[in-house]
Structures are given as C-alpha cells and as structure tokens.
Amino acid sequence: MGLGRTDIWQTGLIHRSMPDVLRTGTLADMPVTWLPDPGPFRFIADPFGIWHEDRLYLFAEAYDYRVKVGRIDVFILDRTFRVIAHSPVLVEPWHLSYPVILRDRDGSFLMMPESGKSGVQRLYRATDFPYRWKEVEGCTFPGPMIDASPLFHDGRWWLFHTPWHEEERPRVDTLHVAWADSLTGPWHPHPANPVRRDIHSARPGGTPVVMDDGTIILPTQDCARTYGGAITPLAITTLTIREFAAHPLPPLTAPPAWRPATDGLHTLSAAGPVTLVDAKQTSRSVIGRAGVDIHRMARKLTRRTPRC
Questions:
Q1: Are 62 and 54 in contact (CB under 8 A)?
Q2: N or C: which end of the chain has fewer CB within 10 A?
Q3: pTM for this predicted structure
Q4: Element spanning 151, H or E
Q5: Residues pairing with 218 in the sheet
C-alpha cells in the first residue's frame, strides 16, 4: 500500500439471493442497504450472515487503523434490515477476519474466522449465541489458512483456501482444496493442490454455493489491479477427492452507484434472501494516515513504558 493510501471497506446487504446475483452477472441496479459508517480510518469487512428467529446475524471483521488488529463484531438486523444491536463478539491477541458462520448437526452455531497470524486455523462454537464463543478443541486443519471457505457437498466437507505462508507474497493467486468427513477433521489435502494459480480467480472471497445445475460457484478475488479489486465467480465443474476442474466467469465489480466505494470488491456471501458484500474506497490522505500511525505508535510506547 502506497504512502497515505488506505483501504476503507464498506459492508452492505444486496436485496437478492446469491444465486440470483450470480445468474444476473452484475451488481448494477440491485438495491443495497449499507451498514452504518464506523468512523474515520475504521472499516467493517468480510461479512457473513445467518438467519435465526427472524433476525439476521451479520458477523464481520471490525478493523481500526489505530490498532491494526481485526476483531469479529456482530450486527443484528430485523426484517427491514435495520440494525437493532451491534457488539464485539470475538477478540484475540492476533488478527481475526473472514468469520464464516455455520450450523452444526446438533443445531449449534460454529464460526471459522481467519486466524492465520496465530499460526493455526481455529474453529469456535457459540456458548451463548451470538455473543460468546469457545474454541473447539481437537481440530486438525491443514495448517494456517487464508479465507478458508467450507462447503458440505456430496456427503463430505470441502474446504477452499489459500495457504498462509509469510514468506510467499502476495498470497492472492493460489487456491488449495481439502476434504474431510467431519468439519473438525482430519482434513486431507487434494492431490492436485494447488488446484489453481491465477491472480484473477484463486483466493476465496465468500460463500461457495451450489447452483440448480449442480455447478459449485466459489467467489474468488481478482487482485490483478489492486487487492480485492473485484469478485470473480469460479465455476467448479468437477470436485472429487482426486479430480478438480473449474473455469472463471465474468467478474463482478462495484457499480458507479456505490460511489465512493467503487475501488474494489472482495466478499460475496450468501444469507438466505440477501447477499452480503463489501466494497472498497481508497483514501489517499497522507496527513490523516500519518496522524493515525503516530497515534498507534504512541499507544504502543505507552504500554511498554514501565510505571514507577
């Protein structure tokens, strides 16, 4: 990211189901409701949602450039998409993002956020939904992952992800697949890994969905122009424990009506009758960003200074 360049993401709800959005092939002219602005040099991104008792529980990364460590927040919305509650729900010493939400067979709620900076992929179970979560022990994921996107299909779990390797940059052009009989593992890496190398359509960017014709569509990020520049739907036509075949569909971009958030798009996730998205506005305020960075460094120095 260049001097003074700051990515600010804005999360919204498109009033169409994700299969409808994918069939249409464009986001133009689709009604969208945006979450409230969290304030300067903060953003809400990576939205995933689930309906429960006539409420939409939208989980997302909450990020403040003054802190630079993401946490997971929940926004509770009614049927008119009015936010009726908002709260942090998962905070760790490491960065958290991409909070995929699932229901287990027993009806309990599971969250699989990106936690690569901790060195492992983690799975959490709600102990008091949606506010309290406890890590599920005994999971055997295939190492730390970026934007891990699970799908239950044909009687087993599939996990689309980009491996987390600090030494490999830019970590946006590789797609791996793993499979398991249980979400907690053991997970088996696909023998064709990496199943895809393409900066336009490899790193996951949302919920995999199965279309009416049986094709799996995995949202992926087009990072050729900029990080999270667009969503490329990846049509997966063959997915077995030995074979994988896919081809990209035309990319989805933020339409002009979304200005100023038209500089990128990097999440497309299904939530029943609505589709959750995040769109990017790039701030180029050198002075503003410098002030934020100075504030963050001052906080660090204050914490490190011993008290007499």
A1: no
A2: C
A3: 0.92
A4: strand 145-153
A5: 234
Tokens in use for 24?
């249409």
* Sign (positive or negative) of CA dihedral 39, 8, 60, 255: positive
Q: Which CATH number describes the domain made up of 8-301?
A: 2.115.10.20
Token output for 248: 């990209």
Q: What is the pLDDT along the chain (308 residues), one digit of tens a residue?
A: 555 689 999 999 999 999 999 999 999 999 999 999 999 999 999 999 999 999 999 999 999 999 999 999 999 999 999 999 999 999 999 999 999 999 998 999 999 999 999 999 999 999 999 999 999 999 999 899 999 999 999 999 999 999 998 555 668 999 999 999 999 999 999 999 999 999 999 999 999 999 999 999 999 999 999 999 999 999 999 999 999 999 999 999 999 999 999 999 999 999 999 999 999 999 876 555 555 655 556 666 666 655 54
